[in-house]
UniProtKB/TrEMBL annotation:
CDD domains noted in UniProt: HTH_ARSR (cd00090)
Keyword DNA-binding: yes
Name of this chain's protein: Helix-turn-helix transcriptional regulator
The organism's place on the tree of life at top rank: Bacteria
Keyword Transcription in annotation: yes
Species this protein is from: Paenactinomyces guangxiensis
Pfam families associated with the record: HTH_5 (PF01022)
Chain residue ranges for the region called Disordered: 112-133
GO MF terms, alphabetically ordered: DNA binding; DNA-binding transcription factor activity
Length: 133
């Protein structure tokens, strides 16, 4: 399965914000490494929005905005337990994005140096041609 161009761009945009990367890092670390305990017994691997907020030292509204962007991109699962919202990473989407990134750009990455060298010589030659006129 591959991602549509629109979905690929949505995920890339969601991952382009350093705050969202930090949030993903916190969720990946989980409670074992956060030095906190979940407010209620919940989903395996999930972290409560309240603990993300505390770790990030950010207002709840700002954390919720970033979590919503990550969730809309399909990068997070949300589980509600009572008044608590827990978030876990959607590794299926992460893998699809990684595979799509590699599929779209891996071959081009191998030849970038050659293309750049060739483009540079073309530009230099073109500039020289115009100056000679």
């Amino acid at each position: 399965m591959s991602l549509s161009t629109e979905k690929f761009a949505q995920i890339a945009k969601a991952l382009s914000d350093p705050i969202r990367i930090k949030i993903l890092d916190l969720i990946q670390a989980g409670y074992d490494q956060l030095g906190a305990s979940p407010p209620v017994t919940c989903c395996s691997g999930g972290v409560c929005v309240c603990d993300i907020q505390e770790q990030m030292n950010m207002a709840q509204s700002k954390v919720s905005y970033h979590l919503r962007e990550l969730k809309n991109a399909g990068l997070l699962y949300e589980t509600k337990v009572g008044k608590w919202n827990f978030y876990a990473i959607n590794y299926t989407t992460m893998k699809l994005f990684r595979d799509e990134l590699q599929h779209r750009y891996h071959r081009e990455a191998e030849t970038v140096g050659t293309k750049l060298d060739h483009s540079e010589s073309n530009r230099a030659g073109s500039a020289r041609d115009y100056r000679d006129l």
